[in-house]
Amino acid sequence: MTFSHADDLELLREAAIAAGRVALGFFRNDVEVFWKNDGASPVTAADHAANDVLKARLLAARPDYGWLSEESEDDVSRLGASRVFVIDPIDGTRAFMTGRETWAVSAAVVEAGRPVAGVLFAPALNELYLADAGGRVEKTARRCASAGAIRRAASRSAPPTTPWRVSMRMSEPAWTRWGAFPRSPIAWP
Asked: Which has the closest alpha carbon to 97: 168, 32, 21?
């Protein structure tokens, strides 16, 4: 069965929210830290727990998709899959470890080497970013980030064959350069 990019985006949204809730249970607690890449990169028990949630939910729904996650052993069978989940269960592990709210669950579907659906869910900020290759780009939030927090914006690159991107900048508000980020009435489960 072939799923639309919108179907994949909805699946990613649900899984990222579930994984974010699990990770939030570890946030600002005494979380176990491991080191990878010869001690250069931290990984926490929360990374592993969120990864487990994502992998279970996503591959149960799309068993023919490949899997590439920062916290899983690489499975080269993904190279033969037409679509691949690309996951970072906690993007911003160092921020997570130090109690800063600027971390997110990052999940995408890549088809033929091109991202076609992606989600960033920042549970500590109650913010969700969605985008797909069909042009959907949305941000939902229950509250605004405080002054001095990372400014968020998204842009669709031209020409249309160039994939979407989400950019996080520490300097001037990004919307002064790219225009306002569209808001969406997405319901929070």
From this structure: 32
